[in-house]
Structure prediction request, 401 residues.
Amino acid sequence: KCLWEDVEMAPEDPILGVTLAYNKDTSAVKLNLGVGAYRTEEGKPFVLESVRKAEAILAADRSRNKEYLPITGLAAFNKLSRELILENDCPALVENRVATIQCLSGTGSLRVGADFLAAHYPNAAIYLPDPTWGNHKGIFPASGLCMKKYRYYNSQSRGLDIEGMIKDLKSAPSGSVVLLHGCAHNPTGVDPLPEQWEVIRQVIRDKGHLPFFDCAYQGFASGDLSQDAAAVRSFAGDGGELLIAQSFAKNMGLYGERVGALSVVCRSEVIAKKLESQVKIIIRKMYSSPPIHGASIVTTVLGDKELREEWMSELRGMANRIIQMRKQLYDALILRETPGDWSHILNQIGMFTYSGLNKEQVAVMTRDYHVYMTSNGRISMAGLSPSTVPHLADAIHAAVT
Ligand SMILES: Cc1[nH+]cc(COP(=O)(O)O)c(CN[C@@H](CCC(=O)O)C(=O)O)c1O
Prediction:
């Protein structure tokens, strides 16, 4: 018998596998609305102008080399990244209480954070919103954390189940880890209102829970970096501990560069230094040090006033295009008198519409209209353009009538 003959063929990832199926489809009208990656009106991936300019600056700089970065990554990147998510005058920053470590994009930041918690915050379960980004359910158990869930989405109202969420957070054992989406909740596109965030924050602090923010879409949801960071900042400003995973995949279009950061807000500078030293031990044995190029792009863009301004306007442009697609899809369904209330398409925030279509309806749309999306009914709005909205509306209409 050959070695590994009995190894099972693993299933494709529910999100990334959609793209593989899409690529195999030869139809001229196929639509990839699966992976959360921005596309232009022409349906093409988008390299931001501010990023191209930053890369030109880097390429022209003959003093640069390809030496190893420190285990914690590019120091200038770490500083700029934490200042982006937290306000410069945030007490935690002013008192130097934040340890920031460059990691492999959002996924890597979550995984390093999870390994850190498994080692230094043992016996606590991590509570995930129901539903949540699929890979959360892979990352945390891989680090050895016990996973629980808290109610989040109300499928009847298609809104936040704030009562259920608060009840579950209150009944969780004190000191539990609570995973929160900073903005643009994936897959529902439903975010707490500012006043609801304040209730959530108070319950978490009263219970001594440890909040872990996953911030993969800062600036991408509303187009405004501060608005999208408001929830995280309210926690960081209250003096308690906090973990933050950041990603520059979407908001700077650096998907394949794998640029992100894990920040741990502590109660003192001394504790932050000790935590950083322990996170270094975890990273050294995992991948030793992070890639230099993407972090250098982010540092160049954020560190230059003009490039940062240009980036912010490109960010608003991407967010606005997605909002336009929401309006056009909604109008197309109204025009077709498609049965059902579709106002959630307009009310949801960020890249995704959580359509409410079930997996059978999704299967019909794929089979008959070559529309590719995740089986939970999530539609990546960035995959749409004015010319393809009618095709998607036809597919949804057929699926629900
Ligand atoms: C909430 C959330 N957190 C973290 C990440 C990780 O992103 P990265 O920085 O690239 O490691 C993503 C990407 N999720 C979209 C991209 C594809 C994926 O699943 O990965 C998605 O949900 O389509 C998220 O949606």
